[in-house]
Specification:
Length: 265
């Protein structure tokens, strides 16, 4: 047993180059260490930003805003992991890297458009909710997910402010995106974590029906897409789809929502 273990360790030292910190230089391991397996989050992060830039037109601060937004999400993810695990030193490298990326870019946006600071209280409250659920180790709670959706949706207003456009001009698009994103929280739960829960399925269908009515009142051009969302919320929970399939379907739905919001705005 000892000889075999020593041989294995020697083989690993021979074939696996190490980084200065003593860890394997395997690129895949490095990516897994610094990029969380939250694939569905990227669409939620990018959709409000893309809608905002498309509606108000691109400005140079939108570029540092985008990078700060994505790096800030990664920073918050590992911060909440540190809170949840009660082991902040375990995530010190990730926190350091993403803080060094986020801070100067966020400061650049603030210097260019100080009005974005008006959104700081809203983000502080929503992040506090996320932190509380992380501390309680209940980050999959419905309210926590809805707080994350609100965090993402507010980015549309930030994009408008960065462009010097009054946020009121994008409020209909903001409302439509919140209707969609909040519904996605319920729908995805019926497909994965709450699969088989009649209560969640009924709540999801009821919500999507109400969202269809609300979206139609916002603009009748939104109705066809929100009808599709209602149908997928009513029909797909009865099918046993893999998470990857659920993700692909949701990417298509987000693109449909993107197109509908831009046409209606």
């Amino acid at each position: 047993m000892t000889i075999r273990a020593d041989t294995t360790r020697a083989r690993r030292r021979t074939h696996a180059p190490a980084d200065p910190g003593g860890r394997s230089a395997n690129p895949g391991r490095l990516v897994r260490r610094f990029v969380p397996p939250q694939h569905g989050a990227w669409a939620m992060l990018l959709l409000p930003y893309v809608v905002g830039v498309a509606l108000v037109g691109p400005r140079w601060p939108h570029l540092p805003l985008l990078v700060a937004w994505l790096a800030g999400y990664l920073l918050s993810y590992y911060a909440f992991q540190a809170v949840k695990s009660r082991r902040p030193r375990r995530f010190a490298a990730q926190l350091r890297v993403y803080a060094l990326v986020t801070a100067p870019l966020a400061l650049t946006v603030v210097v260019a458009r100080p009005a974005v600071l008006w959104y700081a209280p809203a983000y502080a409250v929503l992040l506090a909710i996320n932190a509380w659920y992380a501390w309680r180790r209940r980050e999959r709670a419905l309210l926590n997910d809805l707080a994350s959706v609100a965090l993402s949706g507010v980015m549309l207003l930030v994009v408008a402010t960065v462009a010097g456009v009054a946020p009121v001009r994008v409020l209909p698009a903001f409302a439509a995106l919140l209707l969609y994103l909040a519904g996605t929280v319920l729908y995805v739960k019926t497909m994965i974590r709450e699969r088989g829960s009649t209560t969640y399925v009924r709540a999801s269908i009821a919500y999507h029906l109400a969202a269809l009515v609300a979206a139609t009142l916002l603009d009748v051009l939104l109705a066809p897409v929100f009808l599709v969302l209602l149908v997928r919320a009513a029909v797909l929970p009865a099918r046993r789809l893999r998470p990857a399939q659920v993700g692909v379907i949701e990417i298509v739905c987000s693109l449909l929502v993107l197109a509908a919001v831009l046409v209606a705005s």
